[in-house]
Amino acid sequence: MFDRDRDRDRSRDRDRDRDRDRDREPDRDATDRVHTLGARDKKKPFSFFRAGRGEASAANKPILVFEGVYKYFKRDQPTLRDIDLEIERGEFVFVTGPSGAGKSTLLKLVYRAETVDEGRILFCGRDISRLTATSIPFLRRNLGVVFQDFKVVPHWTVFENVAVPLEIMKMPARLVRSRVGEVLERVGLSGRGDERTATLSGGEQQRVSVARAIVGEPALVLADEPTGNLDPQLAVDILTLFEEIHQAGTTVVFATHDRSLLETRPHRLLIIDDSRIIEARSGLTQWAEEQSGISALPARGAA
Amino acid sequence: MDFTTAIKRAARSAREEARLYLVAISSLAVAFLCLGAALITIANLSAIAERWGQSVRLSIYLTDGADAADVTQMRALLDALPEVTSTQLVSSADARQQFLDGNEVGHDLAALPAEVFPSSVEVTLSPAAAENPAIISQIAERVARLRGVEQVETYRTWMDRLRMLVAGGRFGAGVLALLVGVCVLAIVGNTIRLSIANRKTEIEVLKLCGATDSFVRRPFLVEGAAQGLVGAAFAVSLLLALFLFASGEIAPAFAAFTGVRPVFLTVPMMALVVVGAVVVGSAGSALALRRYLAER
Ligand SMILES: Nc1ncnc2c1ncn2[C@@H]1O[C@H](COP(=O)(O)OP(=O)(O)O)[C@@H](O)[C@H]1O
Ligand SMILES: [Mg+2]
Description:
By secondary structure, chain A is of the alpha/beta class. Chain A is built from 13 helices and 10 strands.
Protein backbone atom coordinates (compact mmCIF):
# COMPACT_ATOMS: atom_id res chain seq x y z
CA MET A 1 0.00 0.00 0.00
CA PHE A 2 1.20 3.48 -0.83
CA ASP A 3 0.54 6.35 1.45
CA ARG A 4 -0.58 9.57 -0.05
CA ASP A 5 2.72 11.41 0.17
CA ARG A 6 4.66 8.72 -1.59
CA ASP A 7 2.02 8.66 -4.26
CA ARG A 8 2.36 12.37 -4.67
CA ASP A 9 6.12 12.13 -4.99
CA ARG A 10 5.81 9.50 -7.61
CA SER A 11 3.41 11.60 -9.57
CA ARG A 12 5.68 14.62 -9.29
CA ASP A 13 8.53 12.60 -10.71
CA ARG A 14 6.38 11.56 -13.55
CA ASP A 15 5.37 15.18 -14.12
CA ARG A 16 9.04 16.05 -14.53
CA ASP A 17 9.52 13.20 -16.98
CA ARG A 18 6.50 14.27 -18.90
CA ASP A 19 7.69 17.84 -19.06
CA ARG A 20 10.98 16.64 -20.50
CA ASP A 21 9.13 14.51 -23.01
CA ARG A 22 6.91 17.33 -23.92
CA ASP A 23 9.83 19.61 -24.64
CA ARG A 24 10.81 17.20 -27.34
CA GLU A 25 7.36 17.12 -28.83
CA PRO A 26 7.01 19.34 -31.89
CA ASP A 27 3.37 20.32 -31.30
CA ARG A 28 3.67 21.12 -27.67
CA ASP A 29 1.63 24.33 -28.04
CA ALA A 30 -1.39 22.24 -28.89
CA THR A 31 -1.79 21.50 -25.21
CA ASP A 32 -0.83 24.99 -24.08
CA ARG A 33 -3.52 26.52 -26.24
CA VAL A 34 -6.07 25.05 -23.91
CA HIS A 35 -5.66 27.98 -21.55
CA THR A 36 -7.30 30.33 -24.03
CA LEU A 37 -10.08 27.91 -24.74
CA GLY A 38 -12.87 29.76 -22.98
CA ALA A 39 -12.41 32.97 -24.90
CA ARG A 40 -11.95 31.27 -28.24
CA ASP A 41 -14.87 28.98 -27.85
CA LYS A 42 -17.26 31.82 -27.16
CA LYS A 43 -16.89 32.74 -30.80
CA LYS A 44 -16.63 29.22 -32.18
CA PRO A 45 -18.54 26.74 -30.01
CA PHE A 46 -17.29 23.83 -32.08
CA SER A 47 -13.60 24.65 -32.18
CA PHE A 48 -12.81 22.13 -29.45
CA PHE A 49 -14.32 19.34 -31.40
CA ARG A 50 -13.26 20.51 -34.87
CA ALA A 51 -9.67 20.93 -33.79
CA GLY A 52 -9.80 17.46 -32.32
CA ARG A 53 -11.06 15.93 -35.53
CA GLY A 54 -9.67 18.23 -38.16
CA GLU A 55 -6.00 18.37 -37.28
CA ALA A 56 -4.16 15.43 -38.70
CA SER A 57 -1.98 15.13 -35.62
CA ALA A 58 -4.98 15.19 -33.27
CA ALA A 59 -6.83 12.61 -35.32
CA ASN A 60 -4.08 10.06 -34.71
CA LYS A 61 -3.91 10.78 -31.01
CA PRO A 62 -6.04 8.87 -28.52
CA ILE A 63 -9.35 10.59 -27.91
CA LEU A 64 -9.00 10.28 -24.16
CA VAL A 65 -5.84 10.04 -22.06
CA PHE A 66 -5.51 9.87 -18.27
CA GLU A 67 -2.02 10.63 -16.99
CA GLY A 68 -1.34 9.87 -13.34
CA VAL A 69 -4.81 10.93 -12.27
CA TYR A 70 -5.66 11.01 -8.58
CA LYS A 71 -9.03 11.84 -7.10
CA TYR A 72 -9.48 12.21 -3.36
CA PHE A 73 -12.77 12.47 -1.51
CA LYS A 74 -11.10 11.54 1.75
CA ARG A 75 -7.74 13.05 2.63
CA ASP A 76 -5.68 9.92 2.93
CA GLN A 77 -7.65 7.52 0.79
CA PRO A 78 -7.85 8.27 -2.93
CA THR A 79 -10.96 7.09 -4.76
CA LEU A 80 -8.89 6.97 -7.93
CA ARG A 81 -5.16 6.39 -7.63
CA ASP A 82 -2.54 6.93 -10.31
CA ILE A 83 -4.83 6.23 -13.24
CA ASP A 84 -3.00 5.93 -16.56
CA LEU A 85 -5.30 5.21 -19.43
CA GLU A 86 -5.56 5.66 -23.18
CA ILE A 87 -8.73 5.29 -25.16
CA GLU A 88 -8.38 5.39 -28.93
CA ARG A 89 -10.79 6.93 -31.36
CA GLY A 90 -13.56 4.50 -32.28
CA GLU A 91 -13.08 2.18 -29.29
CA PHE A 92 -15.85 0.62 -27.23
CA VAL A 93 -14.68 0.35 -23.64
CA PHE A 94 -16.40 -1.22 -20.66
CA VAL A 95 -15.55 0.21 -17.24
CA THR A 96 -16.50 -2.04 -14.39
CA GLY A 97 -15.89 -2.67 -10.75
CA PRO A 98 -18.04 -3.16 -7.69
CA SER A 99 -20.44 -0.50 -6.50
CA GLY A 100 -18.48 2.39 -5.00
CA ALA A 101 -15.32 1.49 -6.94
CA GLY A 102 -15.20 4.89 -8.66
CA LYS A 103 -16.74 4.24 -12.08
CA SER A 104 -18.99 7.28 -11.90
CA THR A 105 -16.14 9.36 -10.53
CA LEU A 106 -13.93 8.35 -13.47
CA LEU A 107 -16.58 9.52 -15.93
CA LYS A 108 -17.35 12.68 -13.93
CA LEU A 109 -13.72 13.70 -14.28
CA VAL A 110 -14.19 13.60 -18.05
CA TYR A 111 -17.40 15.62 -18.23
CA ARG A 112 -16.06 17.82 -15.47
CA ALA A 113 -18.63 17.27 -12.76
CA GLU A 114 -15.53 16.53 -10.67
CA THR A 115 -11.98 17.89 -10.91
CA VAL A 116 -8.79 15.84 -10.77
CA ASP A 117 -6.60 16.40 -7.71
CA GLU A 118 -3.40 15.31 -9.46
CA GLY A 119 -2.39 14.36 -12.96
CA ARG A 120 -4.19 15.39 -16.09
CA ILE A 121 -6.77 14.25 -18.60
CA LEU A 122 -6.42 14.93 -22.32
CA PHE A 123 -9.53 14.96 -24.49
CA CYS A 124 -8.76 15.26 -28.20
CA GLY A 125 -5.22 16.13 -27.15
CA ARG A 126 -6.27 18.98 -24.89
CA ASP A 127 -5.87 19.12 -21.14
CA ILE A 128 -9.38 19.32 -19.74
CA SER A 129 -8.47 18.69 -16.12
CA ARG A 130 -7.98 22.38 -15.36
CA LEU A 131 -10.52 24.06 -17.60
CA THR A 132 -12.00 27.27 -16.23
CA ALA A 133 -15.66 27.16 -15.26
CA THR A 134 -16.62 29.16 -18.34
CA SER A 135 -15.01 26.58 -20.65
CA ILE A 136 -16.73 23.54 -19.19
CA PRO A 137 -19.98 24.02 -21.18
CA PHE A 138 -17.98 23.96 -24.41
CA LEU A 139 -16.29 20.72 -23.37
CA ARG A 140 -19.69 19.17 -22.62
CA ARG A 141 -21.00 20.07 -26.05
CA ASN A 142 -18.46 17.63 -27.41
CA LEU A 143 -19.53 14.80 -25.11
CA GLY A 144 -22.69 12.77 -24.81
CA VAL A 145 -23.54 11.47 -21.34
CA VAL A 146 -26.17 8.87 -20.43
CA PHE A 147 -27.13 8.05 -16.84
CA GLN A 148 -28.75 5.25 -14.92
CA ASP A 149 -31.69 7.48 -13.97
CA PHE A 150 -32.21 8.75 -17.56
CA LYS A 151 -32.22 12.41 -16.55
CA VAL A 152 -34.96 13.31 -18.98
CA VAL A 153 -37.45 16.09 -18.21
CA PRO A 154 -40.65 14.08 -17.72
CA HIS A 155 -43.18 16.77 -18.63
CA TRP A 156 -41.41 17.72 -21.84
CA THR A 157 -42.11 15.96 -25.08
CA VAL A 158 -39.60 13.47 -26.45
CA PHE A 159 -38.68 16.02 -29.11
CA GLU A 160 -38.04 18.78 -26.54
CA ASN A 161 -35.78 16.49 -24.52
CA VAL A 162 -33.72 15.39 -27.50
CA ALA A 163 -33.47 18.88 -29.01
CA VAL A 164 -31.79 20.42 -25.92
CA PRO A 165 -28.14 20.12 -27.07
CA LEU A 166 -28.99 21.56 -30.49
CA GLU A 167 -30.88 24.49 -28.97
CA ILE A 168 -27.93 25.19 -26.73
CA MET A 169 -25.73 25.24 -29.83
CA LYS A 170 -28.19 27.70 -31.43
CA MET A 171 -29.01 25.46 -34.34
CA PRO A 172 -31.82 26.79 -36.57
CA ALA A 173 -35.22 25.27 -35.77
CA ARG A 174 -35.61 23.54 -39.15
CA LEU A 175 -32.29 21.80 -38.82
CA VAL A 176 -33.16 20.82 -35.25
CA ARG A 177 -36.36 19.16 -36.45
CA SER A 178 -34.64 17.08 -39.10
CA ARG A 179 -31.71 16.14 -36.86
CA VAL A 180 -33.97 15.10 -34.00
CA GLY A 181 -36.12 13.13 -36.43
CA GLU A 182 -33.08 11.24 -37.69
CA VAL A 183 -31.73 10.47 -34.25
CA LEU A 184 -35.11 9.29 -32.96
CA GLU A 185 -35.15 6.85 -35.83
CA ARG A 186 -31.68 5.62 -34.87
CA VAL A 187 -32.81 4.85 -31.33
CA GLY A 188 -36.05 3.23 -32.46
CA LEU A 189 -38.43 6.01 -31.45
CA SER A 190 -39.27 7.41 -34.86
CA GLY A 191 -42.55 9.30 -35.00
CA ARG A 192 -42.85 9.54 -31.21
CA GLY A 193 -41.40 13.02 -30.81
CA ASP A 194 -44.69 14.58 -29.73
CA GLU A 195 -45.34 12.18 -26.85
CA ARG A 196 -44.86 13.35 -23.29
CA THR A 197 -41.66 11.71 -22.08
CA ALA A 198 -43.22 10.67 -18.75
CA THR A 199 -45.70 8.43 -20.59
CA LEU A 200 -42.87 6.34 -22.08
CA SER A 201 -41.60 3.11 -20.51
CA GLY A 202 -38.24 3.04 -18.74
CA GLY A 203 -36.46 1.49 -21.69
CA GLU A 204 -37.96 4.08 -24.02
CA GLN A 205 -37.01 6.94 -21.72
CA GLN A 206 -33.44 5.67 -21.73
CA ARG A 207 -33.57 5.67 -25.54
CA VAL A 208 -34.65 9.33 -25.36
CA SER A 209 -31.63 10.04 -23.22
CA VAL A 210 -29.35 8.16 -25.64
CA ALA A 211 -30.84 10.13 -28.53
CA ARG A 212 -30.08 13.35 -26.66
CA ALA A 213 -26.51 12.19 -26.03
CA ILE A 214 -25.79 11.55 -29.71
CA VAL A 215 -27.87 14.25 -31.39
CA GLY A 216 -24.96 16.72 -31.28
CA GLU A 217 -22.69 14.11 -32.92
CA PRO A 218 -20.14 14.08 -30.09
CA ALA A 219 -16.86 12.26 -30.63
CA LEU A 220 -17.18 10.54 -27.25
CA VAL A 221 -20.22 9.10 -25.49
CA LEU A 222 -20.04 8.29 -21.77
CA ALA A 223 -22.62 5.94 -20.29
CA ASP A 224 -22.81 5.60 -16.51
CA GLU A 225 -24.66 2.37 -15.75
CA PRO A 226 -27.28 3.16 -18.40
CA THR A 227 -28.89 -0.24 -17.89
CA GLY A 228 -28.99 -0.13 -14.10
CA ASN A 229 -32.70 0.64 -13.90
CA LEU A 230 -33.79 -1.71 -16.66
CA ASP A 231 -34.71 -5.37 -16.64
CA PRO A 232 -32.22 -7.78 -18.29
CA GLN A 233 -33.73 -7.92 -21.79
CA LEU A 234 -34.06 -4.11 -21.99
CA ALA A 235 -30.49 -3.82 -20.67
CA VAL A 236 -29.22 -5.92 -23.58
CA ASP A 237 -31.28 -3.81 -25.99
CA ILE A 238 -29.72 -0.60 -24.68
CA LEU A 239 -26.23 -2.11 -24.82
CA THR A 240 -26.92 -3.11 -28.43
CA LEU A 241 -28.02 0.44 -29.15
CA PHE A 242 -24.69 1.75 -27.83
CA GLU A 243 -22.89 -0.81 -29.97
CA GLU A 244 -24.72 0.47 -33.03
CA ILE A 245 -23.66 3.99 -32.12
CA HIS A 246 -20.12 2.70 -31.77
CA GLN A 247 -20.33 1.01 -35.16
CA ALA A 248 -21.30 4.36 -36.67
CA GLY A 249 -17.92 5.72 -35.54
CA THR A 250 -18.46 7.13 -32.07
CA THR A 251 -16.17 6.26 -29.19
CA VAL A 252 -18.16 4.79 -26.30
CA VAL A 253 -17.17 4.39 -22.65
CA PHE A 254 -19.75 2.21 -20.95
CA ALA A 255 -19.62 1.84 -17.17
CA THR A 256 -21.54 -1.03 -15.67
CA HIS A 257 -21.27 -3.54 -12.86
CA ASP A 258 -23.64 -5.93 -14.61
CA ARG A 259 -21.55 -9.05 -15.24
CA SER A 260 -24.13 -10.56 -17.59
CA LEU A 261 -23.53 -7.68 -20.02
CA LEU A 262 -19.75 -7.90 -19.76
CA GLU A 263 -19.71 -11.65 -20.23
CA THR A 264 -21.59 -11.63 -23.50
CA ARG A 265 -19.59 -8.90 -25.22
CA PRO A 266 -15.94 -8.95 -26.34
CA HIS A 267 -15.14 -5.28 -25.82
CA ARG A 268 -12.08 -3.91 -24.06
CA LEU A 269 -12.61 -4.08 -20.32
CA LEU A 270 -11.25 -1.76 -17.64
CA ILE A 271 -11.71 -2.80 -14.05
CA ILE A 272 -11.45 -0.36 -11.18
CA ASP A 273 -10.16 -2.29 -8.23
CA ASP A 274 -8.80 -0.84 -5.02
CA SER A 275 -8.97 2.59 -6.69
CA ARG A 276 -6.66 1.53 -9.57
CA ILE A 277 -7.41 0.65 -13.17
CA ILE A 278 -6.74 -2.89 -14.26
CA GLU A 279 -6.78 -3.76 -17.93
CA ALA A 280 -8.55 -7.01 -18.72
CA ARG A 281 -8.46 -7.03 -22.48
CA SER A 282 -9.60 -10.58 -22.90
CA GLY A 283 -12.79 -10.21 -20.97
CA LEU A 284 -13.90 -11.36 -17.61
CA THR A 285 -11.62 -14.30 -16.88
CA GLN A 286 -8.78 -12.19 -15.53
CA TRP A 287 -11.10 -10.23 -13.33
CA ALA A 288 -12.35 -13.51 -11.91
CA GLU A 289 -8.76 -14.52 -11.14
CA GLU A 290 -8.15 -11.12 -9.64
CA GLN A 291 -11.19 -11.48 -7.44
CA SER A 292 -10.01 -14.86 -6.27
CA GLY A 293 -6.73 -13.41 -5.06
CA ILE A 294 -4.33 -14.19 -7.93
CA SER A 295 -1.65 -11.52 -8.42
CA ALA A 296 -2.90 -8.16 -9.65
CA LEU A 297 -2.24 -7.21 -13.23
CA PRO A 298 -0.12 -4.07 -13.46
CA ALA A 299 -2.03 -1.03 -14.64
CA ARG A 300 -1.16 -0.20 -18.22
CA GLY A 301 1.52 2.46 -18.51
CA ALA A 302 2.31 2.42 -14.80
CA ALA A 303 5.98 2.42 -13.83
CA MET B 1 -31.23 35.95 -31.50
CA ASP B 2 -30.60 34.16 -28.22
CA PHE B 3 -33.32 36.15 -26.59
CA THR B 4 -36.10 34.45 -28.53
CA THR B 5 -34.98 31.07 -27.20
CA ALA B 6 -35.03 32.48 -23.68
CA ILE B 7 -38.51 33.92 -24.17
CA LYS B 8 -39.79 30.65 -25.60
CA ARG B 9 -38.37 28.71 -22.67
CA ALA B 10 -39.79 31.27 -20.24
CA ALA B 11 -43.22 31.04 -21.86
CA ARG B 12 -43.18 27.27 -21.59
CA SER B 13 -42.26 27.46 -17.91
CA ALA B 14 -44.95 30.07 -17.27
CA ARG B 15 -47.50 27.66 -18.75
CA GLU B 16 -46.19 24.83 -16.60
CA GLU B 17 -46.17 26.95 -13.46
CA ALA B 18 -49.32 28.92 -14.28
CA ARG B 19 -50.82 28.65 -10.81
CA LEU B 20 -47.63 29.60 -8.99
CA TYR B 21 -47.18 32.58 -11.29
CA LEU B 22 -50.79 33.67 -10.91
CA VAL B 23 -50.36 33.81 -7.14
CA ALA B 24 -47.12 35.75 -7.52
CA ILE B 25 -48.64 38.23 -9.96
CA SER B 26 -51.67 38.82 -7.72
CA SER B 27 -49.40 39.54 -4.76
CA LEU B 28 -47.33 41.87 -6.90
CA ALA B 29 -50.49 43.60 -8.15
CA VAL B 30 -51.64 44.23 -4.56
CA ALA B 31 -48.27 45.75 -3.70
CA PHE B 32 -48.38 47.96 -6.78
CA LEU B 33 -52.00 48.95 -6.08
CA CYS B 34 -50.88 50.31 -2.70
CA LEU B 35 -47.96 52.13 -4.25
CA GLY B 36 -50.08 53.48 -7.10
CA ALA B 37 -52.81 54.70 -4.75
CA ALA B 38 -50.21 56.47 -2.61
CA LEU B 39 -48.64 58.07 -5.66
CA ILE B 40 -52.03 59.27 -6.92
CA THR B 41 -52.78 60.83 -3.53
CA ILE B 42 -49.46 62.65 -3.59
CA ALA B 43 -50.01 63.79 -7.16
CA ASN B 44 -53.34 65.37 -6.18
CA LEU B 45 -51.97 66.96 -3.01
CA SER B 46 -49.16 68.47 -5.05
CA ALA B 47 -51.59 69.78 -7.61
CA ILE B 48 -53.64 71.41 -4.86
CA ALA B 49 -50.57 72.90 -3.22
CA GLU B 50 -49.40 74.28 -6.51
CA ARG B 51 -52.77 75.74 -7.36
CA TRP B 52 -53.07 77.40 -3.98
CA GLY B 53 -49.49 78.58 -4.05
CA GLN B 54 -50.12 80.42 -7.28
CA SER B 55 -53.23 82.33 -6.19
CA VAL B 56 -52.19 84.00 -3.02
CA ARG B 57 -54.95 85.94 -1.40
CA LEU B 58 -55.76 87.72 1.76
CA SER B 59 -59.14 87.77 3.40
CA ILE B 60 -59.72 90.83 5.52
CA TYR B 61 -62.69 90.15 7.79
CA LEU B 62 -64.50 93.31 8.82
CA THR B 63 -66.04 94.06 12.18
CA ASP B 64 -69.81 94.10 12.38
CA GLY B 65 -71.08 97.44 11.12
CA ALA B 66 -67.71 98.63 9.89
CA ASP B 67 -67.74 102.14 8.48
CA ALA B 68 -68.13 102.04 4.68
CA ALA B 69 -65.77 105.03 4.36
CA ASP B 70 -63.07 103.16 6.28
CA VAL B 71 -63.50 100.20 3.99
CA THR B 72 -63.30 102.31 0.82
CA GLN B 73 -60.18 104.04 2.12
CA MET B 74 -58.60 100.71 2.97
CA ARG B 75 -59.34 99.33 -0.50
CA ALA B 76 -57.82 102.43 -2.14
CA LEU B 77 -54.74 102.01 0.05
CA LEU B 78 -54.41 98.33 -0.92
CA ASP B 79 -55.06 98.91 -4.63
CA ALA B 80 -52.20 101.39 -4.62
CA LEU B 81 -49.74 98.69 -3.49
CA PRO B 82 -47.72 97.07 -6.33
CA GLU B 83 -48.22 93.60 -4.80
CA VAL B 84 -52.00 93.81 -4.99
CA THR B 85 -53.76 92.81 -8.20
CA SER B 86 -57.32 93.46 -7.14
CA THR B 87 -59.64 93.86 -4.17
CA GLN B 88 -63.23 92.83 -3.84
CA LEU B 89 -65.80 93.54 -1.18
CA VAL B 90 -67.85 90.55 -0.10
CA SER B 91 -70.91 91.50 1.95
CA SER B 92 -72.46 89.20 4.55
CA ALA B 93 -75.24 88.36 2.11
CA ASP B 94 -72.73 87.52 -0.63
CA ALA B 95 -70.77 85.33 1.76
CA ARG B 96 -73.92 83.47 2.76
CA GLN B 97 -74.86 82.91 -0.86
CA GLN B 98 -71.35 81.66 -1.73
CA PHE B 99 -71.50 79.26 1.17
CA LEU B 100 -74.88 77.94 0.12
CA ASP B 101 -73.77 77.58 -3.53
CA GLY B 102 -70.61 75.75 -2.65
CA ASN B 103 -72.26 73.24 -0.37
CA GLU B 104 -75.30 71.14 -0.72
CA VAL B 105 -76.50 72.04 2.71
CA GLY B 106 -79.63 70.95 4.46
CA HIS B 107 -82.54 73.05 5.56
CA ASP B 108 -81.04 73.91 8.95
CA LEU B 109 -77.98 75.61 7.55
CA ALA B 110 -79.93 77.30 4.77
CA ALA B 111 -81.94 79.00 7.48
CA LEU B 112 -78.85 80.72 8.88
CA PRO B 113 -79.13 84.50 8.82
CA ALA B 114 -76.67 86.58 6.82
CA GLU B 115 -75.22 88.11 10.02
CA VAL B 116 -73.48 84.82 10.78
CA PHE B 117 -71.25 85.35 7.78
CA PRO B 118 -68.87 88.28 8.28
CA SER B 119 -68.35 90.65 5.40
CA SER B 120 -64.83 90.80 4.05
CA VAL B 121 -62.48 92.35 1.58
CA GLU B 122 -60.87 89.68 -0.61
CA VAL B 123 -57.43 90.75 -1.81
CA THR B 124 -55.73 88.99 -4.71
CA LEU B 125 -51.97 89.35 -4.65
CA SER B 126 -49.66 89.35 -7.66
CA PRO B 127 -47.75 86.15 -8.42
CA ALA B 128 -44.54 88.00 -7.58
CA ALA B 129 -45.83 88.60 -4.05
CA ALA B 130 -46.65 84.93 -3.70
CA GLU B 131 -42.93 84.19 -3.86
CA ASN B 132 -42.28 86.42 -0.88
CA PRO B 133 -44.11 85.47 2.32
CA ALA B 134 -42.42 88.31 4.24
CA ILE B 135 -44.23 90.97 2.19
CA ILE B 136 -47.55 89.22 2.70
CA SER B 137 -47.10 89.17 6.46
CA GLN B 138 -46.03 92.82 6.38
CA ILE B 139 -49.20 93.83 4.50
CA ALA B 140 -51.32 91.66 6.79
CA GLU B 141 -49.85 93.29 9.91
CA ARG B 142 -50.41 96.79 8.61
CA VAL B 143 -53.98 96.06 7.55
CA ALA B 144 -54.79 94.44 10.89
CA ARG B 145 -54.11 97.76 12.65
CA LEU B 146 -56.65 99.65 10.53
CA ARG B 147 -60.05 100.59 11.88
CA GLY B 148 -63.00 98.27 11.12
CA VAL B 149 -60.75 95.23 10.62
CA GLU B 150 -61.63 92.22 12.73
CA GLN B 151 -59.05 89.73 11.47
CA VAL B 152 -56.70 89.16 8.53
CA GLU B 153 -56.41 85.66 7.09
CA THR B 154 -53.22 85.17 5.05
CA TYR B 155 -53.74 81.44 4.57
CA ARG B 156 -50.03 81.11 5.32
CA THR B 157 -50.55 78.48 7.97
CA TRP B 158 -52.82 76.57 5.61
CA MET B 159 -50.22 76.72 2.85
CA ASP B 160 -47.48 75.68 5.23
CA ARG B 161 -49.53 72.77 6.45
CA LEU B 162 -50.35 71.66 2.94
CA ARG B 163 -46.75 71.96 1.85
CA MET B 164 -45.67 69.90 4.84
CA LEU B 165 -48.35 67.37 4.03
CA VAL B 166 -47.08 67.11 0.46
CA ALA B 167 -43.45 66.84 1.58
CA GLY B 168 -44.40 64.22 4.18
CA GLY B 169 -46.48 62.40 1.61
CA ARG B 170 -43.57 62.38 -0.84
CA PHE B 171 -41.28 60.98 1.83
CA GLY B 172 -43.89 58.39 2.76
CA ALA B 173 -44.31 57.41 -0.87
CA GLY B 174 -40.54 57.05 -1.16
CA VAL B 175 -40.51 54.73 1.85
CA LEU B 176 -43.50 52.86 0.44
CA ALA B 177 -41.77 52.53 -2.95
CA LEU B 178 -38.75 51.07 -1.17
CA LEU B 179 -40.97 48.65 0.76
CA VAL B 180 -42.78 47.64 -2.40
CA GLY B 181 -39.40 47.13 -4.07
CA VAL B 182 -38.35 44.79 -1.25
CA CYS B 183 -41.72 43.03 -1.51
CA VAL B 184 -41.27 42.53 -5.24
CA LEU B 185 -37.76 41.19 -4.68
CA ALA B 186 -39.09 38.76 -2.10
CA ILE B 187 -42.16 37.67 -4.05
CA VAL B 188 -40.33 37.19 -7.34
CA GLY B 189 -37.34 35.68 -5.56
CA ASN B 190 -39.51 33.12 -3.77
CA THR B 191 -41.51 32.30 -6.87
CA ILE B 192 -38.36 31.73 -8.87
CA ARG B 193 -36.87 29.68 -6.03
CA LEU B 194 -39.95 27.45 -6.06
CA SER B 195 -39.79 27.28 -9.80
CA ILE B 196 -36.11 26.33 -9.65
CA ALA B 197 -36.96 23.55 -7.20
CA ASN B 198 -39.56 22.25 -9.66
CA ARG B 199 -37.08 22.47 -12.50
CA LYS B 200 -33.97 20.91 -10.96
CA THR B 201 -33.85 18.14 -13.56
CA GLU B 202 -34.30 20.61 -16.38
CA ILE B 203 -31.43 22.77 -15.14
CA GLU B 204 -29.22 19.72 -14.60
CA VAL B 205 -29.97 18.48 -18.11
CA LEU B 206 -29.21 21.87 -19.62
CA LYS B 207 -25.88 22.09 -17.84
CA LEU B 208 -24.90 18.52 -18.76
CA CYS B 209 -25.67 19.28 -22.39
CA GLY B 210 -23.27 22.23 -22.29
CA ALA B 211 -25.52 25.18 -21.50
CA THR B 212 -23.66 28.17 -20.09
CA ASP B 213 -24.87 29.72 -16.84
CA SER B 214 -26.29 32.65 -18.76
CA PHE B 215 -28.26 30.31 -21.01
CA VAL B 216 -29.77 28.73 -17.89
CA ARG B 217 -30.31 32.10 -16.25
CA ARG B 218 -31.91 34.01 -19.10
CA PRO B 219 -35.39 32.42 -19.11
CA PHE B 220 -35.63 32.93 -15.34
CA LEU B 221 -34.75 36.61 -15.74
CA VAL B 222 -37.41 36.92 -18.42
CA GLU B 223 -39.91 35.27 -16.08
CA GLY B 224 -39.04 37.59 -13.18
CA ALA B 225 -39.29 40.63 -15.43
CA ALA B 226 -42.60 39.42 -16.86
CA GLN B 227 -44.06 38.89 -13.39
CA GLY B 228 -43.11 42.43 -12.41
CA LEU B 229 -44.43 43.80 -15.69
CA VAL B 230 -47.78 42.05 -15.51
CA GLY B 231 -48.26 42.80 -11.79
CA ALA B 232 -47.48 46.51 -12.18
CA ALA B 233 -49.32 46.95 -15.48
CA PHE B 234 -52.40 45.27 -14.05
CA ALA B 235 -52.33 47.46 -10.93
CA VAL B 236 -51.87 50.67 -12.93
CA SER B 237 -54.64 49.71 -15.37
CA LEU B 238 -57.01 48.89 -12.54
CA LEU B 239 -56.26 52.20 -10.83
CA LEU B 240 -56.76 54.07 -14.10
CA ALA B 241 -60.11 52.37 -14.67
CA LEU B 242 -61.20 53.18 -11.11
CA PHE B 243 -59.98 56.73 -11.52
CA LEU B 244 -61.86 57.29 -14.76
CA PHE B 245 -64.99 55.77 -13.30
CA ALA B 246 -64.81 57.68 -10.01
CA SER B 247 -63.57 60.99 -11.31
CA GLY B 248 -66.82 61.43 -13.26
CA GLU B 249 -68.63 61.21 -9.92
CA ILE B 250 -66.40 63.19 -7.64
CA ALA B 251 -64.56 65.58 -9.94
CA PRO B 252 -67.02 68.52 -9.52
CA ALA B 253 -67.05 68.29 -5.72
CA PHE B 254 -63.28 67.82 -5.66
CA ALA B 255 -62.81 70.80 -7.94
CA ALA B 256 -65.16 72.96 -5.84
CA PHE B 257 -63.23 72.21 -2.67
CA THR B 258 -59.71 72.34 -4.00
CA GLY B 259 -59.81 74.46 -7.11
CA VAL B 260 -58.20 71.71 -9.21
CA ARG B 261 -59.53 68.75 -11.14
CA PRO B 262 -58.40 65.37 -9.79
CA VAL B 263 -55.24 64.14 -11.52
CA PHE B 264 -53.93 60.63 -12.32
CA LEU B 265 -50.30 59.58 -12.49
CA THR B 266 -48.44 61.21 -15.36
CA VAL B 267 -47.35 58.97 -18.23
CA PRO B 268 -43.66 59.17 -17.21
CA MET B 269 -44.67 58.21 -13.66
CA MET B 270 -46.65 55.20 -14.88
CA ALA B 271 -43.71 54.21 -17.09
CA LEU B 272 -41.36 54.57 -14.12
CA VAL B 273 -43.52 52.27 -11.98
CA VAL B 274 -43.76 49.62 -14.70
CA VAL B 275 -40.09 49.81 -15.71
CA GLY B 276 -39.11 49.72 -12.03
CA ALA B 277 -41.23 46.60 -11.59
CA VAL B 278 -39.50 44.94 -14.55
CA VAL B 279 -36.03 45.82 -13.26
CA VAL B 280 -36.73 44.76 -9.68
CA GLY B 281 -38.49 41.59 -10.90
CA SER B 282 -35.51 40.43 -12.90
CA ALA B 283 -33.20 41.42 -10.04
CA GLY B 284 -35.23 39.22 -7.68
CA SER B 285 -34.90 36.38 -10.12
CA ALA B 286 -31.17 36.94 -10.55
CA LEU B 287 -30.68 36.89 -6.78
CA ALA B 288 -32.56 33.61 -6.42
CA LEU B 289 -30.51 32.08 -9.24
CA ARG B 290 -27.17 33.37 -8.10
CA ARG B 291 -27.44 31.32 -4.95
CA TYR B 292 -28.53 28.24 -6.89
CA LEU B 293 -26.03 28.40 -9.73
CA ALA B 294 -23.16 29.16 -7.36
CA GLU B 295 -23.80 25.82 -5.67
CA ARG B 296 -23.24 23.80 -8.84
N1 LIG C 1 -19.11 13.90 -4.04
C1 LIG C 1 -18.57 12.94 -3.27
N2 LIG C 1 -18.21 13.22 -2.02
C2 LIG C 1 -17.63 12.26 -1.25
N3 LIG C 1 -17.44 11.01 -1.65
C3 LIG C 1 -17.79 10.67 -2.90
C4 LIG C 1 -18.38 11.62 -3.77
N4 LIG C 1 -18.64 11.01 -4.95
C5 LIG C 1 -18.21 9.74 -4.81
N5 LIG C 1 -17.71 9.53 -3.58
C6 LIG C 1 -17.15 8.29 -3.07
O1 LIG C 1 -16.26 7.81 -4.05
C7 LIG C 1 -16.39 6.41 -4.17
C8 LIG C 1 -16.69 6.06 -5.61
O2 LIG C 1 -17.99 6.48 -5.94
P1 LIG C 1 -18.60 6.25 -7.38
O3 LIG C 1 -17.66 6.81 -8.38
O4 LIG C 1 -19.96 6.79 -7.39
O5 LIG C 1 -18.62 4.68 -7.49
P2 LIG C 1 -19.36 3.76 -8.56
O6 LIG C 1 -19.94 4.63 -9.61
O7 LIG C 1 -18.29 2.85 -9.07
O8 LIG C 1 -20.39 2.99 -7.82
C9 LIG C 1 -17.47 6.00 -3.20
O9 LIG C 1 -16.85 5.51 -2.06
C10 LIG C 1 -18.21 7.23 -2.91
O10 LIG C 1 -18.70 7.23 -1.60
MG1 LIG D 1 -21.89 4.90 -10.12
